[in-house]
C-alpha cells in the first residue's frame, strides 16, 4: 500500500530560516508587535508620522544596529542585519524601506564611503535617529544612470569648501525618502570638480534642515506627494543653489581632495573607482531580494490556506469542490509555491556571499564582482516574481483578496516599486548579460569567429565555458532524440543541462551576432554598427540574463536538498522538479526551435508537471506551514480558517433542515420526478 | 527614395470612436471637468462622499439616462449608454463603477427583470438618484456561482408577502457597492420558495435604509472597509433576518407568484430561466471590456510620449539615447500598442452586438447566446491586458510612473478587481470553453470517436466546424513545411489560419480526451470519471477559450482595416500584423509541438516582428494621438512634454558652459590624452 509521504515541517522551516535564524526571529517578533504594523487606509500624513515614530521604536528595540561597527554600538553583523531587514516586510513595507533609507542607504553610505572621522562624527546620531537623512543619488534626468548625474561639487581651495550645486531642473535629486519632511542631512552624489577637472561621481555629506525642520539656505525641497504605494515614506526632491560644505564632508574612502585642491585616489581608473563606490550599495538589492521572497511566502500562505477551504460550484458528489482540487487552481498556485522556495534558497546564497564580502571573510575583487552579478541577476527575478505571485494570489482569492485587510493588495502596491528601484530590473539584467558576454568572450582568441560559431551550434565539448558564476559543461544537443518519455528530462542532471545549455547557447548566439555586425566594416563605422547590433540583441541579452538567474535559482534549490532526508527529501525533490520542469515548459519554444527537445518530449514534460501538481497539492499546507507565518505576521482574515467555519455552519444548517423535513424541494427535482412518472 | 508613410490621424481617431462617437465625446467632456476627477490620496471617507456627489453631477449632466425608456426620461440608447460609461474611466474608476452599480446593476435589474409597474414605481427615483441602491447578488460563500446563493425568499400566502432571510454567515451578500452607506434599497437575489418548492434564484426589491441612512428592521450591514482600489465606493455586506416585502416586490418578468402562492413562468426549464435572467446582466461585462481598452490607451499614451522624450545612458554619438529607440523598450511597449487597438476594435464589435440584442434590432436567442459568449471571451482578455499594460507602462516610466499624479498606479489599483468581478475571468473563460466543446460535439454523431480523432489530427478538410461565433476552415498542417521564410505566415490568410487552427485543434483534443475518459466504463462510474477528466483538462480548456478570444480580437482588427486606405492602411496593417504575429510568437511552443510551424519559421516570425517594431516605432506618437486623449483626460505630468523641456534646458546649460570655456574636463579624458602623449 502506498502512503502519502509527510514532510518534517520543522526541518523545512529551519532550512528556510537559513543561517541567520536568530536575527530573523528577532525581526519577526518586532513585526508581530501591532505598534509596527500597517493600518490600511491611513492618510499619507498620518502614515508618514506613524512610520517615523516606528523608526524610533526600531532603535529602542535594538533592531537596526547590527551592521554598524561594534565600537559604535553595532555588532559588525552584515548578513544578520539584512536577514532581519527582510522580515520587516511582514510589518509594513513603508517601515521597512524608510528604515532602509536611514540605516541601509544614508547610514551605510557614511559607513562604506566615509572614513573613521565621518563614522565617529555622524554615525551615532544616524543610528539613534537623532539625525534622519536622505540618500541623494538619483536625479530626475538620470534614473538608473548614476554615472551621468549632473549635480556638481566644485572645490574652492580659498575657502577649503565644496560648493554643491544643481545646474538645471533635470539634476534635481528625486524620489528620495526623508527628503520631503524628515531629513536633516543628505549624502549627495555629485561630480567632484577640482582645478577644472571632473573626477567623477563622489558622495558628500550635506546638512539640509535644522532639527526643527527648516530648510537650510540654498537647499530646496519638493514633496513627491502620493505614490502608488509606500506612502509612509516622505519621498521628495532636493536641489542645491551654491550650498557650501567643508572640505571634510567629502566621504573620502575612495577619493580625496587635499586642502590645496589636489585630487587623490588609491583606485587609478575613474571607471573602476566609480563602480567600487557604487558596489558598496549592493546591500539594497540583497535586501529587496529576500523581502520579495517573504512577500511571496505571505501571499501563498493566504491563497493556499483559503484555497484549501474555499468551495465553489457543485462537484459530482453534489458538494461544492474545494478550489485547490481544481486543476486550474493547482496550475495557478503550485508552480508559484515551488518558485517561492527557489527564490528563498537562492536568496540565502546571495546573502551568504554578501556576508562573506562585507564581513571581510572573503572580500576579494572576484567575490565582490560575483556578488554584484548575483544580486543583479536575482533581485529582478525575485521582485518580479513577488508581484506576479501577489497578483495571482489576489485573483485566486477573488473579491476577498481585494479587501485591504487581507494584505495582498497592500503588499502588491508597495512592492511595485521594488522592480525599478535599487536598479531598474531590466538595467540590472543587462549588466548581467554584459558580464555573461565578457566571460564568454574571454575564452576565445580575439576574432576567433569560428570558435564562436561552433559554440552557437552547441558543440563546445570539453572546452567548458565560464558564465558569470557558473561552470557549464558539455553539449546536450542530443537530448531531444531519445524516445518519447519524460525519463530523459526529469532527473536532476538533465534539468541542469537543459537550463545551463540554454544560457550558454543564447549568450554564444548573441556574441556571434555582435561580432558579425562589425567584422567587415572599416574602423570608423564600427562604433555605430556595434551599438546598433547591441540594440538589436538587447531583448535577447536580457532573456539570456534571466535564464542565467533561473539557473542560479534552480541550483540553489538543488543544493538546499542536502538539508533533507527521507520523506522530506522526496517531497522537496518533487518541488524542485516542479520548479525546474516549469522553467523548461515555459521556455519550450526555445528548446524546440533549438532542437534540444522534441515535441513529444515537451508534451511529456507537461504531463509530468500535471502529475507533480497532484502530489504537491497534498503537501501544499505543510509546505506553507514551513513558512512559519503566525497569525500576527500574516494578519489576513481569510487565512484564519473563517471560511471553513462558515461552511461548517452552512452545512449544518442544510443538514438540520433536511432532517426536520423543512428543506424545500427544488423545482428541477420535481420536474425530474414528474417525467419519471409519466 | 522610400519615405516613411504617415497615418491620417483623424481617420484612425474616428475608427477608434466607433459608432457612438457622439456619446463618447459627451462622456469625455464630463471626464474633463475637474469636479468629476480623482484626487489622489483622498481618505476613503472623503472619496466616498465626493463620488456620491459626483453621481448627482452625472444626473444633472444628463449623462446616465440613455439606456432607460424614453417615457421615463431616457432614450432607449443601449449602445450609446455603455459607450459613454466606458469613457468615465478617464474621470475616476470609482465614479465609473459606483454609477455602474446605481444605473447599470441596481437600475438595470429593475428595468430588465421587473415589469411596467416596477419601472413606473422605482425607476424615476433610481434615475434621479433619489433612491440609491445596491445590487445584492454575490454571497460570501458563493462568489461566481450565482445559482448556489443561499438567501431565501419564502412566500407567505396569508400575508401575501415574501420573507427575505439569510440562513447563515456564508449567505451574507458581499462586496456590494452602496451597501455600506448610501443604499436605501437593494435588488436581492434569493431562492424563491413557495408551497415548499424552491423555484431557483429570482430578484426582489428590498428596502434597506431610510432616506436618513437608518437601517430598516431585520436588515444588517457591514462595511468592507479599505480595498485595494475603488475606495470611492462604499462596498459592504448585507444580511436579512425575516425581512418582509410585499408580493409585488418580486421582479416578475421571468417568473411570478400569484396571491395564492402558485408559481408561473413563461420559461419552463428552471435552468434556462436562470440563465435568461442572468443574461440580462451581460452589460456589466461589455462595460468593463471597453473601460479596459480605454485604460490601455491612457497607459500607452503616457508611456510612449514619455518614452519618446526620455533619454538614458549615452549612445555612440555621446548623447543619451531616447528610451523608445532601445530595442527592449520597443519590445515592451509596441506589441501592447497593437494589442490595445485589437482590444478596442473587438470591443466595438461586442458593443454593437449588445446594442442589437438590447435595442431589439436583432434579439434572437442565438444572437443573445452569441453575445454572452463574446462578452465572456473578450472581457477576460481585455481586463487582464489592461493590468498588464498599466504595469508595463508603470515600469517603463520608472519611478515617475509610481507617483500617483502620473495616473498609472491609480488605474492599476482600481482596475485590479475588473478581472474578477462581473464574472471571474477564469470562470468566464471556462464558460466559453464549454460552449466551444458543445458546438464542437454538435457536429458529430454521438460517440463518433473516429471523427473526433480525425479532427484532432487537423485533417477535417471540408467539414467546416462551428466554433462559438466563428466558422473555421481547412487544415493548415502543411504550413510548417514551406521553406524557411516568413512569407508563408505573415499574410492575412496565413495568420487567420494559424490562429483558427489552434482553437480548433485544442478543442478537438480536449473533446477526445473527455470522451476517451468514460468510453469503456460502466454507467455508474461515468459521472465521477467524467468530472475527473474535465478537471484534468480544465487548464487546457481555458487556454483554448483564450485562443478563441484572441482570434476574435484579431478578426475584429482585420475587419477594422476596411476603414482605412493609403498610408493609413499600410501602417494599420503593420500594426495588425504585429498583433497577429505576436500571438503566434507567444504560442510558438504549441505551433512547434503540433507541427504547424518549423523552428526556422518561428525564428522568421520573431525576426519579422523585430522589423515591424522598427516601423511602428516611427508611427507610435501618431498612433497614440489617434486616441485623442487631451491633457484634461490624461492629466499625467510626464506626458506633457515636461521631460523634453528639462532636457533642452540641460543641453543648453552644457552647451553654454562649453562655449564659455567653463565646462570641466573629465579625468578620463585627461588620462586618455596623457596616454596619447606618452
TrEMBL record, chains A, B:
Main location: other
Keyword Oxidoreductase: yes
Single GO biological process annotation from the record: lipid homeostasis
Residue ranges of domain Acyl-CoA oxidase C-terminal in the record: 503-638
Domain Acyl-CoA oxidase/dehydrogenase middle, residue spans: 134-243
Enzyme Commission number, as recorded: 1.3.3.6
Domain spans labelled Acyl-CoA dehydrogenase/oxidase N-terminal: 54-128
Superkingdom of the source species: Bacteria
GO molecular function, one term: FAD binding
Enzyme class label: oxidoreductase
UniProt cross-references to Pfam families, sorted A to Z: ACOX, ACOX_C_alpha1, Acyl-CoA_dh_M, Acyl-CoA_dh_N
UniProt domain Acyl-CoA oxidase C-alpha1: residue ranges: 279-437
Family listed: Belongs to the acyl-CoA oxidase family.
Protein name stated in the entry: acyl-CoA oxidase
Species the sequence originates in: Leucobacter soli
